[in-house]
Amino acid sequence: MRLGIISDTHGDMTAMRQVAALTPPVDCWLHAGDHARDGAFLEKLTNVTVYAVCGNTDLFLDCKKIDEFITMAGKKIWLTHGHTYHVHGNDVHELLYRGRQYDADIIIFGHTHEPYVDCIDGRLLINPGSASRPRGGSAA
Question: Among 12, 40, 60, 92, which residue has the fewest nearby CB atoms (within 10 Å)?
């Protein structure tokens, strides 16, 4: 199963079009918040199912989920934005703590706008960075 992972699109349709054009075919997309409603645009654009969660800029929108739990290919995936779990920079301690509680194999988050990939205690943590407003020297 191939997953597309995107976060922090902030309503930037051009950035989403660019990401979709550069990404090989995927079975579904995971949108880790900040303009979770962009998931509907991405779903239309790619004709692929999109799972999306709310971020800190979604709080005043009609957005109901801050966490999504998905099982794919026998792996438990926890999709969250991270802002409610004190994610700042590379501080992922609370995500790891909660990931253990949720028995998540993979933790996908956003919020920092900086890409991050690590495997800690057998759990894969992925932050795709921001598709529209990258930070820390990363490129969209």
Answer: 60
